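Long-time lurker. I teach an intro course on protein structure, and each term I like to show students one example going from raw sequence to a predicted 3D structure in token notation. This year I'd like something fresh instead of my usual example. Would anyone be willing to generate the tokens for the chain below so I can use it in lecture? Attribution to the forum is fine with me.
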Amino acid sequence: MSDTLFELVADYGVWLLAVSCFLSCLLVPIPTSLLMLAGGAFVAAGDLDLGNVVAGTWLGAVLGDQTGFHIGRRSSGVLDRVATRWPSRRPVIDRARDLVAQRGAMGVFFSTWLVAPLGPYVNFIAGASGMGRGRFTLWDAAGEAIWVTIYVGLGYTFADQLSMVADVASNASGFVVAAAMTLGLGLMLRAQLRRARAASRVRADSADSGRD
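-- Reply from a regular --
Happy to contribute to a lecture. Here you go:
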């Protein structure tokens, strides 16, 4: 498969990378991360321009996210239809809904790179939930810049070991999602603990004031 991807990138260059990024943000099953690794490797070989690769992949991803956001805004039930047709996707959709509900625009930011498998679903949910387009765009564009930098940078840096890097990147995605969800739960528990401690201090201060 890696050889085929290399041939595609060699034939179509930045246009292929941009289109694949766009479509992957709309739930089209394309190995975009592997294509970006290949793009970085071609930059290292001098066959593609770094600025064009970074700009093309970033723009394609942002436009894809904007399209998903717009679809969610116009048709809030799109993910319910997806879950009905493909029940195996419902847990991912539920995690994406929780991410947006708990983190808002920061959830959009993290979904573009830290928990990228949730990204397309988050775009739809953000649009359906009424999030402001400007707020969505700001955090989405920032997150996609990180995503593009990571994968193109890995392809560029480890061009000679690209197959190994591709395997690691593919196998790591599930662990990244799990780690991110664990981190989110940890942050929630810490926030609740801080609120409980603050409430205890308030009660203690009130009790001391009453004795005075």
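Some talking points for your students: DSSP finds nine helices and no strands in the chain. The first helix runs from residue 2 to 24.
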